[in-house]
Each structure stands twice: as C-alpha cells, then as structure tokens.
Design brief:
The mean pLDDT is about 95. The strands form 2 sheets. The chain has a 6-stranded antiparallel β-sheet with strand order 1-2-6-7-8-5. The protein has a two-stranded antiparallel ribbon with strand order 3-4. The protein contains 2 helices and 8 strands. The longest helix has 20 residues, at about 55-70. Helix content is about 20%, strand content about 40%. It has a single domain, classed as Hotdog Thioesterase (Thiol Ester Dehydrase, Chain A), CATH 3.10.129. By secondary structure, the protein is of the alpha+beta class.
Length: about 140
C-alpha cells in the first residue's frame, strides 16, 4: 500500500501541470479511496437542466486516477485508463458533481476501483462506475 499519504493539494497541483484541461479537483485522498469534484457550467448541461453523461464519466475517470495516486503513495501521471464502464441511475442536477472512488483490487500492473457519482446526496448516486487503471512498467 501507500508509503506516504498524499494531500489533495499536491494532487491538484500535479494534475494542473500534467493535464491542464482537467477541471476535476481532488478533495479527499486516502490509500483506499479518493473523492473528486467539479463545478458544472453551461458546457456541461443538457436540455432539461441535466448534467451531461460525458461530464459524469470524466469525473468518475478522474476520481479513479486520483485513487491510483493514493493507493501507490505517489503521483503516477502515466497510469492510464484500461477499462471504465458506467451506469447512469438518475438525472444529475446541480451546480457541482462529486465522485468517490474506492479501491477494489491492486496488483503490480493494475488498480481496480468502483465509483459513485452524485450531486447533492451521496446516498442517491446519479451514476455508478467500475474501472481499471494500468500502471506503467517500472
């Protein structure tokens, strides 16, 4: 597991340099979980006022990426999405979107996690996802 606990600020600083187009922010990070958030804007809203599926998918992916950092105990920019599937459960409406990724399994080559996405109440997810991140060779 992680040799040191990284801070969300350290993750956000590294991501802003490595992936400046990302709007996702890490707000909580541990060895077995990560929480990410994004403030939604006009570009994220579909007709009816719903947050678009691609915005939810991107945040789930970002939360898994942050989880990789916590599980490894270091920021590994070259960890790459190997697989990610999502199921939309209900409309997402609100000014912010949140996602919590939880570690399911980790090996020397992969990190597998599940993600819940929500707007107001974490107990009422708007989507659930599961994915795998591939780790670079040492």
């Amino acid at each position: 597991m992680a040799a040191e606990i990284l801070t969300p600020a350290a993750v956000n600083d590294a991501v802003s340099v490595a992936f400046p187009g990302s709007r996702a922010r890490c707000v909580e990070l541990g060895e077995r979980h990560a929480i990410a958030t994004v403030t939604t804007g006009e570009q994220d809203i579909r007709p009816g006022g719903f947050i678009a599926g691609p915005t939810q998918f991107a945040l789930a992916d970002a939360a898994l990426w942050f989880l990789v950092f916590g599980a490894l105990g270091r920021i590994e920019e070259m960890a790459l999405t190997s697989e990610l599937s999502i199921r939309y459960l209900r409309p997402a409406i609100g000014p912010a979107l949140h996602a919590r990724a939880d570690l399911a399994a980790m090996s020397r080559r992969n990190v597998v996690g599940s993600v819940g996405v929500w707007t107001v109440d974490a107990a009422k997810p708007t989507a659930v996802a599961q994915g795998t991140y591939a780790l670079p060779l040492p």
